[in-house]
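Bit of a strange request maybe. I'm writing a small parser for structure token strings and I need a real example to test against, not something I typed by hand. Could someone generate the tokens for this chain?
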Amino acid sequence: MIGKQDAIALLKADHREVEALFEKFEGAKGEGAKQKIALQICLELTVHAQIEEEIFYPACEGKIDEDLIKEAYVEHDGAKVLIAEIEAGAPDDEFYDAKVKVLSEQIEHHIEEEERRMEGMFSQARKAGLDMDALGERLRARKTELLAQYKATGLTKPEIATFTDATV
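Reply from user aminoacidic:
Good idea to test on real output. This should exercise your parser:
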């Protein structure tokens, strides 16, 4: 279960989890193993993006560099498109592994933007004096709720906020 952490510790723990899953995917043998790991990546990233968009980013608005927040929303939307493609596909699809690889690269960049020392989103949020313990509680509660919901019903079609002409 998700332990007591402040907001940044919780989000960073999510980052480490998904990085480990991408690494596991790269070494996986067999289509069944690959698909299981890819679907776990999709679940983890979907929940993580949702809690950031519902709770963390709104708390940061007006307190940190607005461009960082806008970029994060666009990066999430790009990831959601790939997640939907991976979810709908299968390991024997021609571009399946490539989609997981590109998703991994996008997420690696996104993590760097959030975690960069000094000017990263997390650093700026901490300097802004946000109540990270209270945010951590809200993030943890919502994450637990979403994980239970998605494990019971499967992922929903992603909501894309920044790609106005795209369809998923």
